[in-house]
Design brief:
- Its main location: cytoplasm.
- By secondary structure, the protein is mainly alpha-helical.
- It has one domain: Transcription Factor, Ets-1 (DNA polymerase, domain 1).
- Helix content is 57%, strand content 0%.
- The protein has ten helices and no strands.
- The protein has helices spanning 6-13, 20-25, 31-34, 39-45, 50-66, 69-72, 79-87, 89-92, 102-115, 121-134.
- Mean pLDDT is 73; it is low at 75-81 and 89-99.
Length: 153
Amino acid sequence: MSGSNIVAEWLRSLHLGQYAESFLDNGYDDLEICKQVGDPDLDAIGVFNPAHRTRLLQSVRTLREEGAASVYFTLEESQAIQEECKCETSSARSSRSGAHELPRYLDEYEEGKAELVRIPRLQLKILLREKLNQDGIRLSNQPYSTSVSVLNT
């Protein structure tokens, strides 16, 4: 299994990296394919933990609504996911991966968390606007947008 696969990275960002190999083995090797994941697919992949299923299905919904760019541009880490991870410590021991996986899982989480750069939404918006202006890009002009003529006579 390649560590650079976008699906594996997506699952790691959800703190569900233990399912990466199973996703790839079942043909879910692209985010466009992952947009189609539902309950029957999770059964086939081997995701039986209800909290993991919920987290995956919510992320799949986000993929559908916001597109794959939402995976690349995570603005702020969700506090709810952090709290859920803390609560699952006891249930993680009873999962298929076993208790010996827990310390490695927490270490990977801490390493990944250290790599995240948090930028508040407003500040990111300002940075993007400034960069677009510097590069002379106007999103309201062609080729980025197409004008619609009101008078089609």
